[in-house]
Amino acid sequence: MIRIATLILIELLITLGLQARNYPKREMRAIWIATVANIDWPSRAGLSVDMQQEEMVELLNLAKEYHLNTVIFQVRPATDAFFPSGLEPWSQWLTGEQGKAPDPLYDPLQFAIAECRKRGLELHLWLNPYRAVVDTAKSSIAENHPIHQHPEWFVTYGKARYFNPGLPQTRNHVATVVADLLRRYDVDALHFDDYFYPYRIAGQEFPDQEAFEKYPRGFTPDQKEDWRRDNVDLIIKQLHDTIEAVRPTVAFGISPFGVWRNQSDDPRGSATKAGQTNYDDLYANILRWQEEGWIDYVTPQIYWHIGKEVADYAIIADWWSKNALGCRLYTGQAFYRINRDAKDREWRSSRQIIKQLRLNRFYPNIDGSMFFSAKSLRSNPLKLKEKLLRGPYRYHALPPVNPRVEQITPGVPLKATMEITGDSIHLSWMPGRNNQAFVIYKFRKGKPANAENPENIFTVTGENDIAIEISRDTNPGKYYFVVSALSPTNQESVLEYFFGGQTGDRR
Which of 52, 168, 158 is nearest to 111 (CA)? Predict the structure, then answer.
């Protein structure tokens, strides 16, 4: 009876949340593009360069169609690279053989950046910190992989190999990779997922005793778990410092397992019964990183349904909202679970995601969502796209501004002009200072330009011109258009007006 009453209350909160926040102008709407084991891209290793690029363009176009605004691209799944690197080999999931470059040679990361920029999409670089070899029996390992150059840095656990988190060389190497990426590529954020210390294998101890004895840093044998947490703290702090030194406008985000700790183990924890947790099993003390300002956003992977007994989405989302600790908070949600034959009946409809999104808007500290994963955009499980666009994603939204990074102020777009030819409107403008993307607004003539209402956002683009087909909804006799610019940190400029080919007043 208590659970039924709780679910009824949640349904009420969802309704109230929708009424309270309606449609936010700024909201993270991101999709993970996973490359490990060819989950999302490329669809299989060894595709031709043309096919790889076609698939990436398809995914980015789908992201726009779903009214998403951000892409999280996995570029270092296992101490390998989806970009030319002098530090780590080309990924086996790109060409089929680790260390083998694409032919003809191109840079997949730079290609993804350029295509995201055209579409006004943010791009976050997704890296795994410790994973080195996914399967020691099956993985392709290149001669220039660090595991051959520095075998003493690595340990085997289960069927995989990992950097030993207890070694300072591990932290230094990962920080060097990050610094190299940030110096060479124009990206918006650096992103780590939940794989810190690996998930526990029953009956197997992680083999880091030798590292503990060599680098105890004052921890005693009965404090080994605290030492492990300190190892992860050290790499997070070092990466924060690296980003701040190399490119301080780039955000640092972590997407941890959904449960920090169970309340049964810690009164500060959530009312859950998770079998493994960040703090106790992965040695990831996320709350400390938030409190210390070492990370700029957190995206707990809450891949469960509302009402799940041991891990209720509503309970966990509420807990994270209360423990955002000044950090931007986005929820990780599970497109992949939607399936007509799902074990849990709640996932036999895409409505579960819609309910979660509406519930999110009830909580003031939840600033949006990230979804796993991109191949679901292709399959559109149980008409998810249609439900999103009729419901919570009816209008476009801009990514949130992250106050923890150094801000960039945009100039106003220049020389905005409008030309009507036949049945189309052509809008063009010149980029101003620090313009990375542009927001095109559409307003009804005779009404003020209310840029705070997302209903008025016509589109977001990285191009500096756009062609619009004239229809009942775009008739220039009834509507007028305005452009603003977004900086690389999502600050928005004042508006520039189009007036029949004349540059309008800036407001």
Answer: 52
Alpha-carbon distance of 255 to 180, in angstroms, equals 22
Q: Where are the alpha helices (DSSP H) in 66-165?
A: 92-95, 108-119, 146-149
DSSP letter at 435 equals -
3 state DSSP class of 412: coil
Write b or e for each residue in 131-170: b if 16 or more Cβ atoms lie within 10 A of its Cβ, otherwise e.
bbbbeeeebbbbeebbbeeeeebbbebeebbbbbbbbeeb
Show the beta-strand stretches assigned E in 122-228.
Answer: 122-127, 131-133, 154-157, 160-163, 189-192
pLDDT of 441-477, one tens digit each?
A: 999 999 999 999 999 999 999 999 999 999 999 999 9
Beta strands in 195-255, from DSSP E residues, in sequence order:
251-254
Query: What are the residue boundaries of the structural domains of the chain, listed by start?
Result: 2-390, 414-506
**Paired strand residues for 460:** 439
Same fold, 2-390 and 414-506: no
> What's the rounded Cα separation, in Å, for the pair 362 and 359?
5
Cα 122 to chain centroid distance, Å, stands at 9
CATH architecture classification, 2-390: Alpha-Beta Barrel (3.20)
Nearest-angstrom CA–CA distance, 281 and 277: 6
Is residue 309 classed exposed, middle or buried when 0-12, 13-18 and 19+ CB atoms within 10 A define those classes? exposed
- Write the pLDDT tens digit of every residue in 284-312: 999 999 999 999 999 999 999 999 999 99
Distance CA 116, CA 159 (A): 36
**DSSP tag of 213:** H
Task: Give yes or no for residue 3 having a pLDDT over 90.
Answer: no
CB 364 within 8 A of CB 321: yes
Topology of 414-506 in CATH? Immunoglobulin-like (2.60.40)
pLDDT at residue 230 is higher than 50? yes
Tell me whether the omega of the peptide bond preceding residue 42 falls within 30 degrees of 0, making it cis.
yes
Contact, 71 vs 115, CB < 8 A? no
Does the pLDDT at position 503 exceed 90?
no
What is the longest distance spanned by two Cα atoms in the chain?
79
Prior bond of 104 cis (ω within 30°): yes
- pLDDT tens sequence across 328-374: 999 999 999 999 999 999 999 999 999 999 999 999 999 999 999 99
